[in-house]
Amino acid sequence: MNASSNASVAPFWPTRYGIAAAVATEDAVARSLQLYGEWAEHETILLSGLLEEGQTVLEFGSDFAAHALWMAQAVGRHGEVHVAEPRRIRFQQACANVAINRLDNVFTHPVWLGRGKGASSLGTLLPGSRGQDEKVRIATVDSLRLPALHLLKVNQPHALVDVLAGAGDTLRAHRPLIYARLSGMEDAQAEVDAIKALGYRAWSHVPYLFNSDNHAGVDANIFPGMVQQNVIAAPADSRFEFAERLEL
Hints:
Blueprint: E1 12-15, E2 18-21, H1 28-36, H2 41-47, E3 56-60, H3 66-75, E4 80-84, H4 88-100, E5 106-109, E6 112-113, E7 118-121, H5 122-125, E8 135-139, E9 151-154, H6 160-165, H7 168-174, E10 177-181, H8 185-196, E11 200-205, E12 230-235
Parallel strand pairs: 3-4, 3-9, 4-5, 6-8, 9-10
Antiparallel strand pairs: 1-2, 7-8, 10-12, 11-12
């Protein structure tokens, strides 16, 4: 099955978990949403066995709310999904998708989650990114004062160590699961060490970007052999055990 020839001009994309407003397909997330109607579905497959109704999730890096649409359904009307997205246009795009799907249990925060407060340029926080002169507000996870937290999901690369440094009170109080995309060979060891220093055990999760059972039924694989290098972590004294995965 081939993608529709007019998909690039359609104002909305049908996805597995709701409607997404069409955006420029300049990155992997947008291309996947347009072609497959989903993004990194193997992440949601793992997390679907861990999230329950009434729980609270915090996600850093919106990915156009692709996973927030699913998490909002997973935690139900009595749960909460908080999405932090510092980039202005990305934040607005995520808000649009939350609004058109009428997700009353999703709360968006236009902040970069780090170890302190203030403001910085995007280029300082994320070298090599587009819009490096864009000013973004920095806040800590602790400053959000979440009354509960069951899953901390970090999609934003090169941020995990600082996110955890600014989340000490929240992590001690709520002991959530942590799911994060590692930032590459140079940073991965420090990121895993930062997780384990908090009294967590960590396991590897390496999901493929292509899902053969994708929502649109498209056979073409535009991500051949491509995977995310992720980590799933749980408090060492919790009931969670991921024996089928490599412990780090």
